[in-house]
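Our preliminary data section would be incomplete without showing what the modeling component actually yields. Below, a chain of 152 amino acids is followed by its predicted structure, encoded as tokens that our downstream tools consume directly.
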Amino acid sequence: MNDMKPIDGAEYITLEDAKRLSLPYYEGLQAGFPSPAGDYQHESLDLNEKFIRHREASYYVRVKGESMIGIGLFDGDICLVDRQEEISNGSIVVACINRGLTVKTIDLSTRDKGYVRLVPANPDFKPIIVDANDEFFLQGKVTSIHRDTSKY
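Predicted structure:
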């Protein structure tokens, strides 16, 4: 994986970079009228336990670029990717095409025509058409997206 380059969507982050940390967890907080947060405190929450289903098959990627902003996936976001999750038509995937990595929605509806499409979620970008002439494999399915909101 280290010799692959991002084309417009991904760079790897190892699971070791995501240390296990258990923090207090609050559930059911209103986005409207405030209420006392103490009523909502639960046990602590470990994000690795919450989001990682197949630890040995999971990794993180940091998104670069704006090709997926239409689904709320922005430059700098971190995606959790699972190689064991089933990929179906419309899944958000990390794909390797001609030794380049990208994060896109996969369109499998054209398989019977001899190609698949990697579809961006931004009208400024064109779909990537993948056919038998391309070196192509799927790196896994994006299962969650994490964003640092401190920059807002």
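The mean pLDDT is 80. The first strand starts at residue 5 and ends at 6. Preliminary results of this kind motivate Aim 1 of the renewal.
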